[in-house]
Amino acid sequence: MTKKEIKDDLLEQLEAQGKYQNYYLDLIEDYMKYYDLKRKCQRDIKEKGLRYEVVSGNGFKSEKPNESVQNLMKITTTMLKILDELGLQNPINTSDNSDDDYY
Known about the structure:
This protein is mostly helical. It contains 3 helices and 2 strands; from the N terminus they run H-H-E-E-H. The chain has one domain.
């Protein structure tokens, strides 16, 4: 599902509820900005993993936790709060029939 499809789905849900005010449209824009941040965190985790190696100024190697993991959890929580505030549901991905998406 593309970003545009997600936004369109959320806007359709708003329209079905008769919510046309700018307040709601602004929340959708916020949701989409968080969507972009979520994707960036996911890419960073995929590239670096949960932990990654760093070299300190004095040449010692150590591992650091990837901050994107914590940020991803916070971003997801915020996105769910926005949907709750709007009274909307998560868009359902109908193009992917993967069993992993269905619990």
